[in-house]
């Protein structure tokens, strides 16, 4: 595995944006972060976050909300940002992601509203009752192994245990290892609990930072699978709070769904760093579009 | 107590907006929903939600995010809305609230991004592991009694128990009764737990609806008080998911803070209706601005 640093990685390259006018950025949505044909929502959020980080005077996303409007496709895209307010410690901005139809008309993919700050400038006090999730050691968790060319993931079955189906291109970008207690769905035996947990890293070894946390909160399989639902669970809205700059090393992610009602469910994610700090909290509202 | 209905209440009158141009609404921020001099953020959210409900083709807020930019003051205000996307079952819009400085210049107070739908059209399936909070009966909880003129609340001490200090105008609009286990702060003995729970209603008896839930999620005292913090806890961002149309009758609200770090904390609120349905979930990111 190549050793890469922040700024020099698949994630950084694929979320890069180029300013083409004040507040306007050209981007290319990579095929490397797709699940079947859908571009991962967390990847899109990170890309938008990078554009806003350039447009706003503060470096770090503190709270970012995205409403997903239409399905993004790999290829060219444009991010337009708006600086709403800049203050001494916080600044707020909005952003829109658009792509173009065959006839050249614009199609809006997502809309983002975010407040940025400087995590390094915050006092170091912590008072928390939150506890890291209980996840078995990395080597006892289940993952997908990237193919050599990283074009797509090949399901892996270590120790004869079941591999995770449905892996696609994004599997080659992630070093994801799921708690076996939350992958019953992969062998037709979902637990019935709305839980998904695992270890998260980037496959090329890039360490986490506030921007990559925006990807992390939406990169695990949906909890709906463990609830026994089959189908799609498209995100309507996702809000992520980045609470601390993550330490280098692997992250742990725990996602919980408590309430499925009227064809909607919430997914609450927590991300913990290698120093047992709660570094991000997110909640999304998703629709359940079932197949029989 | 006067018997009022939805559409005919203090809440409806004070959140009313008048369309002055396509997508633009005049409003008057009422003095009746202030805490000391600050206009309550939940009240503002409901007012913005009403404007968006007029601008969008779907009636009910499903997920609403607000970023609070500057402190609103009672008086005239203008809401400008933008319809971002209208679909068959969901529509998405943005809104901004502005007021005017003495020199006539505009000051933006808050920015909102929201997706609306039709709660009555959703299937009636529910699968939930969420349980209503354990709150003592209404008559054993502690509240504030409105003054006859409703201009401000007079702290009440039933049975000799402590009243809740800091009550101001909004106390006259709400029928709020807090779980005694979460009001230790009022007598200088905070529990140290980031919890606040209670019964919630509108003082004039108006039943809850999806719009009033936007007020409900931000109407209790801050959990920071029970953590022993003294000062202000201004909301940076609040996101509310409305999950079901509430049944008539009193609501129960439970708010939890798990993580205080770097001068920020989250407040997670759940709202339950009289039929034991989880009708709203919210999370806000707030700053702690302490006084010694």
What would your notes on this structure say?
Chains A, B: Residues 130-155 are annotated as: Disordered. Chains A, B: This is TesB-like acyl-CoA thioesterase 3. The structure is a homodimer of 292-residue chains. Chain A is mostly beta strands and 292 residues long. Chain A folds into 2 domains: 10-119, Acyl-CoA thioesterase, double hotdog domain (Porin, Beta Barrel); 138-290, Acyl-CoA thioesterase, double hotdog domain (Porin), CATH 2.40.160. Chain A is 11% helix and 42% strand. Chain A has 4 helices and 20 strands. The first copy, chain A, has a 15-stranded antiparallel β-sheet that branches. In chain A, strand 10 and strand 11 (153-155) form a beta hairpin. The N and C termini of chain A lie far apart (41 Å). Residues 145-163 of chain A have low confidence and may be disordered. Chains A and B meet through strand 5, strand 8, strand 9, strand 15 and strand 17 of A and strand 5, strand 8, strand 9, strand 15 and strand 17 of B.
Defining key terms:
homodimer; 292 residues; mainly beta; Porin; 15-stranded antiparallel beta sheet; two-stranded antiparallel sheet; 20 strands; 11% helix; globular; TesB-like acyl-CoA thioesterase 3 (chains A, B); TesB_ACOT8-like_N (chains A, B); ACOT8-like_C (chains A, B)
């Amino acid at each position: 595995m190549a050793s890469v640093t922040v700024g020099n990685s698949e994630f950084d390259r694929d979320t890069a944006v180029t300013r083409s006018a004040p507040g306007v950025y050209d981007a290319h949505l990579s095929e490397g972060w797709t699940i079947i044909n859908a571009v991962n929502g967390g990847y899109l959020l990170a890309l938008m976050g990078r554009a806003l980080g350039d447009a706003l005077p503060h470096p770090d996303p503190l709270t970012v909300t995205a409403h997903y409007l239409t399905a993004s496709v790999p290829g060219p895209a444009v991010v337009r940002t708006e600086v709403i307010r800049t203050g001494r410690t916080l600044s707020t901005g909005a952003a829109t992601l658009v792509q173009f139809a065959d006839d050249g008309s614009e199609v809006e993919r997502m809309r983002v509203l975010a407040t940025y700050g400087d995590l390094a400038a915050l006092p170091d006090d912590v008072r928390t009752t939150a506890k890291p999730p209980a996840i078995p050691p990395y080597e006892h968790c289940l993952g997908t192994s990237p193919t050599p060319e990283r074009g797509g993931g090949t399901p892996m079955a270590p120790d004869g245990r079941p591999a995770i189906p449905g892996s696609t291109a994004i599997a080659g970008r992630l070093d994801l290892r799921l708690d076996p207690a939350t992958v019953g769905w992969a062998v037709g035996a979902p637990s019935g609990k709305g839980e998904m947990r695992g270890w998260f890293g980037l496959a090329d070894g890039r360490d986490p930072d506030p921007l990559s946390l925006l990807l992390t909160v939406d990169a695990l399989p949906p909890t709906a699978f463990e609830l026994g639902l089959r189908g799609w669970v498209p995100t309507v809205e996702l809000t992520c709070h980045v609470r601390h700059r993550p330490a280098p090393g692997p992250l742990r992610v725990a996602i919980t769904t408590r309430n499925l009602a009227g064809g909607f469910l919430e997914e609450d994610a927590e991300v913990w760093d290698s120093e047992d700090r709660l570094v991000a909290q997110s909640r999304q509202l998703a629709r359940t579009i079932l197949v029989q």
